[in-house]
Amino acid sequence: MPAAIRFIAPVLAALLLSHCASTREDEGPLGQPELDHLEHAQLDPTPETADGKLLDNGKPTDEAPVTGLAPVSGKDGRFVIRDAQGAMRVDGTLKQGRMDGLWKYFDPSGRRLAEVGYRADQRQGPVTLFYVSTDGNAAGRKRMTGTYGDGSLDGMTRSWYPSGGKELERDFDHGILQGARGWQEDGKEMTDGAAQTAALQISKSEDALLSELEAFVQLKIRQHAPENI
After folding, report:
1. Which of 77, 37, 36 is nearest to 54 (CA)?
2. Helix or strand holding residue 10 (H, E)
3. Which of 95, 90, 99 is nearest to 117 (CA)?
4. How far apart are CA 139 and CA 142, in angstroms?
5. Considering the entire predicted model, what is its pTM?
6. What residues in the chain have per-residue pLDDT under 50?
7. Domain spans of the chain, in order of start
8. 141-192: per-residue pLDDT in tens?
């Protein structure tokens, strides 16, 4: 099984949810990241308004908390999470209190970790995963691209090794894997069986990563919702 498949979810999630440096592949897996690593993260005041209030239909609203924290429902505006050092880790928008449009996730150094489209808290539209700072020279390169429809991968999804070489092509129909092609790091094509196995494994890891990130965002939204909402 390719190393990238074995480590993608724990490594990427740990980069977002903690400040701990990733271990090298020969040091063993990181284990499951903990959601409380950013328990005391601060959410930004919305920069579009001088007093930092959340925007509602393009205007400042007195109903929004002055800290810029978004309530669970009924509010529109930008939702940003920073870690204790002030680094932006999550940047997206809420529509009627739900994740909407393109959301961006970052590692501690500011490198893009993931960009995912949403509609009403459900994955919808383009998704891109990136190699990050701990991946050395691969930092900034695309790791995976695809498209979600109604919460499931739909259409062609592509993955690359840190070197930039092709790793997998996966064809989905509303979340059901229809076929896969895979290549080893030396460029040699995998057998159909090996490609299918790799496709299922890496798809599961990617879903676990995104679910972890989304769970954290939802936790923060609800933690800081006004008590009367």
Report:
1. 77
2. helix 3-17
3. 99
4. 9
5. 0.72
6. 3-7, 9-11, 18-73, 228-229
7. 3-223
8. 999 999 999 999 999 999 999 999 999 999 999 999 999 999 999 999 999 9
